[in-house]
Amino acid sequence: MPYKPTGRPPGRPRTSTMRPVSIKLPEELLLDAQVEASLSQTTLSTLVRDGLARRLEETALARATRQVACVAIRAQVRQEAYAADQARRAAARVARVEQEGEAIRQAVAMILMTQAAIEAGAASTPTRGQAGVIAAIRRTLAPHDPNSVPVAAILAWCEANKVAWATPALVEQALVMIAQAQAAAGAPERSGPCREG
User: Fold this and answer.
1) pTM of the model
2) Which of 18, 50, 66, 122 suits 152 as a labelling partner, its CA being 20 to 30 A distant?
3) DSSP secondary structure, 129-186, as one string
4) Which whole number is the average pLDDT over 68-88?
């Protein structure tokens, strides 16, 4: 009678989820395992399964510990890099403040020299030196946009720094001279001198 396929696997149906595995053990280890199994009143297969499961748990724990250590090391490296970046930025800010302070000291020295020269020969119209002093004051008060400094702010600065020669008319004339010099040099101001009404 010919074989008729039924669509089911041949043989008895498999009801167990375990699969047989063949292993090789040294004789002494096998003897110790058999003695331990008899003392524990269990089978050799159960003893091997328990040992393998315990080994896998220890391996997983060691792997998790390594991962935690790696995360901690990465966090420490990032924190050190952030601290180094903050230190570099602080050093850059200190250097910028020192440069601005040096520029202010140079401007004050120029103003004092010009004031002494004006007191020696009281001039009624601004000289190129006075116009340069006005330009330095404007750069000191507004380094990013000197043209936005009004006459009142320049006069207040001169009064605070005891620059006696600065009058509204003189400052206005100096601002006009600065504008003319910049126009002649090919770099005109964006907006003309600010006048206080």
Assistant:
1) 0.35
2) 122
3) HHHHHHHHHHHHH-SS-GGG--HHHHHHHHHHTT-TT--HHHHHHHHHHHHHHHHHTT
4) 91
